[in-house]
Amino acid sequence: VRIHEVGEFGLIDRLAARLRHAPNGGNTGVVVGIGDDTAVLRYQPDHDIVATTDALVEGVHFREDTITYHNLGFKAMAASISDIAAMGGVPLHGLISIAIPSRMQVETLEEVYDGVAEMCNLFGCTVVGGDIVKTDGPLLINIALLGAVQRTKALLRSTAQVGDVVFVTGPLGGSAAGLALQCEHTDLVLEQSVREDLLRFHERPIPQVLAGQLLVQSDACTSCNDISDGLANELHEIASASGVSIRIQEEQIPIHPSVLQFSHRIGHNPYEWALYGGEDYQLVGTVRKHQLEIVQTLFREKSLPFYVIGEVTNPGSDVSIVSGRSTVPLEKRGYHHFR
Amino acid sequence: VRIHEVGEFGLIDRLAARLRHAPNGGNTGVVVGIGDDTAVLRYQPDHDIVATTDALVEGVHFREDTITYHNLGFKAMAASISDIAAMGGVPLHGLISIAIPSRMQVETLEEVYDGVAEMCNLFGCTVVGGDIVKTDGPLLINIALLGAVQRTKALLRSTAQVGDVVFVTGPLGGSAAGLALQCEHTDLVLEQSVREDLLRFHERPIPQVLAGQLLVQSDACTSCNDISDGLANELHEIASASGVSIRIQEEQIPIHPSVLQFSHRIGHNPYEWALYGGEDYQLVGTVRKHQLEIVQTLFREKSLPFYVIGEVTNPGSDVSIVSGRSTVPLEKRGYHHFR
């Protein structure tokens, strides 16, 4: 069905219907949801609000041949939830704007919204409003997302301290590896499980909300970012915002076995993906060294991985990496627009 | 200067700089603004949060030849503030996403952000975050905006009651008249003051935040919408959401003298603009008849206009208009996409 056949209000009704099922703590704090001039939301007085917005554009951030529309919705919402997770927050209320080329089918948009709903349901958050507009350009999805964090406890990127250890919450480079598989090596024969892993890493990333919660709970975390633009870029952001120098060990960066296997097959350095690939949506940050065991215990109790990959060495604003016997500056690049 | 010459971070710095001046109550509730994974915001415990999102697309919602880039930013923010006003809320925290065609100049974008900043400063709200992405398509601006409203006092569209009177807070049709002047009658000789009025109505609408506040304060308002898609559409939304029938009087719809003068010159019915034009950003709603004088007194004390234009006649979901001696159904149309 073409979009003009159902009209703007018909389309709103059909898409809003995909968002209505919220079995898992959905509708927390929603006084008024979709259907008035604004949503009306109620937050606990002992919480601050964390708020983020992210836009994804077809042809820039995704292509029809590298992700399904369902997973596009899933991943768009994951990207915004990941920002909330990086602050130690719980995602609660989303606002989705979508700019739609007239060629699109209503059913395709429903797939996108089903993916959004699937991700929302994983974390108990609710879409409370949006805007649907047409465009002569590419499909664009913008998700603004609000969440709650314990008052004064938000994890910033500007508060890392000399002496802290640097951590990440999971294997890196998987999303870039999956994209490389989709774009450049579609015909490569791979074990089915390896292929599935790589595609999942790229299309269905899981934001680290629980890890962010544990970091807040530990009271040991001094800084945190989510890895949306590659580990190198995130470390540079922390170093620059905190006024510290960071040194990491290449060999301690976790890489998933399927990513390693694929990288060996195609002769690509997997650390390149981890450092500069982006969209892994793990967390990177710093914890006080004397409280490291507290954090490790909390993560172990929840069966969540936690990797120490380096340390904050001194005041400054640079990042270096120990690779074999040499220590070299880590380039400040990642996935940037307009470069 | 072309966008690729300054890079993504250079562009963010330059645009964020335009938003930093907030003389008028700015930064209320901002714990962390632009520069981390998310903003961190603190609301008063006796307030609910109102949240809205609006996207504007070049070629669909605006054209370079009908509005300046400064006024585009001004109006984009006005549209979002107007949604907050319609709930009786105070606008506080904005998140701006912008998708930029590569042909655009940095200076042009700075004009847009100056316009956003001007509108923010009028109402003491602050831009706390955003996303800047490139696009192969048209310029797109999305503003998600949060505000505060007294807990349980938000003005809904679903709670109009039979017996209420219907009001609007100012003259209508001005925005559509200004657009008609820009698009179809650029060479028409008009008094300078009339021309300026019409262009101002179209390019620089002022959201009715104070009026929304007074309506909350009065405790007499039973429903409210902002007029973004034309009076007819907004009345139908209230009628449908509240399950009531509404009858308005054409001759009581306020039309600005400059709009009347222009309409006579070009032989156009000004009520057509008021009913179906949109983007006037006045408020329309209902108040209890026995409390009408309380509301009128509040508005008079603040020198704000307040016009009674009709009444809620009975249960139902339709809207009619008395025009001369005849009463006719009011068409449910306005500015809709995909029609």
Outline the fold blueprint.
The structure is a homodimer of 339-residue chains.
Chain A: H1 3-18, E1 30-32, E2 39-41, E3 47-57, H2 69-86, E4 90-101, H3 106-123, E5 126-135, E6 140-150, E7 165-168, H4 174-184, H5 192-203, H6 209-218, E8 221-226, H7 231-242, E9 244-249, H8 257-266, H9 270-276, E10 283-287, H10 292-301, E11 307-315, E12 319-323, E13 326-329
Parallel strand pairs in A: 4-5, 9-12
Antiparallel strand pairs in A: 1-2, 3-6, 4-6, 7-10, 7-11, 8-10, 9-11, 12-13
Helix pairs in contact in A: 1-3, 2-3, 2-6, 4-5, 5-8, 6-10
Radius of gyration of chain A: 20 Å
Largest interface: A-B, 74 and 74 residues
What helical percentage do the residues of chain A reach?
Answer: 25-40%
Mean pLDDT of chain A: 94
Structural class of chain A: alpha+beta
- Written as H for each helix and E for each strand, in order along the chain, the element string of chain A is HEEEHEHEEEHHHEHEHHEHEEE
Q: What is the terminal separation of chain A in angstroms?
A: 39 Å
